[in-house]
Specification:
Length: 270
């Protein structure tokens, strides 16, 4: 978010993007579930741009943020539970968010049955907006100067790598690659190819709709002590544990990577 908070983004027509000029309410959804969009990264720009809540009010801005404890960055967009809860509440209350007075707010989403007179609620959850100050924001961001140095180091190394690619590799690729070859490589990309093999373009997938209809007509729940249900739960738990272990190993290995650690000690960001 450093590029955004320092107004380094420029549109194709030359306009510089400054978040302080945004007049509509800004809604920030972040999660502690992984290190892709954690609160320090998703909310740190607020601390970079403003001195305090009074500064936000002086710019006539309304900032609303929501912190999720478990979902990952992809879950923010595609998780069914997040869609039924957070997305539904935000969408249903957009008009209310639009008329909130300028300031900084954190949302809390609680089940309707836990509130008073739950029978009066039209939906399953209650969305609350709580005014926050920068002391409470700092407890979520937990800014560390050494993190800024590490990010600046990685950003600089990335710029150097990009410059070397453009200088030594890109000219050769442009000289040897034709539009037809590039199109073929894009089509044969493993991720794209996997989707195409499971799409309607594959002749072998023709019987799948008929088979799916037959399954829908004969679908019925199984008991919790069903052997295949137990295997399904066991496999799912093992998969989740394996993915979490791989994520933790990847993150710790990257954090302890010698070249990043060494460079961050010697590189001084401007």
């Amino acid at each position: 978010m450093a590029i955004v908070s320092t107004a380094q983004l420029v549109t194709s027509d030359g306009r510089r993007i400054d978040l302080r000029n945004v007049r509509s309410p800004v809604v920030v959804f972040c999660s502690r579930g992984d290190d892709i969009t954690p609160p320090p990264q998703a909310l740190g720009w607020i601390r970079d741009l403003y001195e305090d809540v009074d500064d936000i009010i002086a710019h006539d801005q309304t900032i609303v943020y929501c912190q999720h404890d478990t979902t990952g960055h992809l879950g923010i967009f595609v998780s069914g539970s997040v869609s039924r809860k957070e997305h539904t509440e935000f969408t249903a209350n957009m008009d209310y968010i639009d008329v909130l007075p300028p300031g900084l707010y954190e949302t809390a989403i609680t089940p309707a049955e836990e509130g008073e007179d739950p029978e009066l609620y039209e939906r399953d959850y209650l969305l609350e907006f709580m005014s926050r100050d920068f002391t409470e924001l700092d407890s979520a961001v937990k800014h560390k100067p050494e993190d800024d140095r590490r990010f600046a180091t990685v950003a600089r190394i990335s710029e150097i790598n990009l410059g070397m690619y453009r200088l030594f590799i890109q000219p050769w690729l442009k000289a040897t690659m034709t539009p037809e070859a590039a199109r073929l490589i894009r089509r044969m990309h493993p991720i794209r190819l996997g989707y195409k093999l499971l799409s309607d373009r594959n002749p072998l997938s023709v019987p799948l709709p008929v088979m799916a209809d037959a399954v829908r007509k004969n679908r019925h729940p199984v008991s919790q002590d069903n052997l295949f249900k137990a295997f399904e739960n066991m496999g799912s738990d093992q998969l989740v544990a394996s993915l979490n272990a791989m994520r933790d190993l990847r993150d710790s290995s990257t954090e302890k990577c010698s070249w990043i650690s060494t460079a961050s000690r010697y590189y001084k960001p401007p």
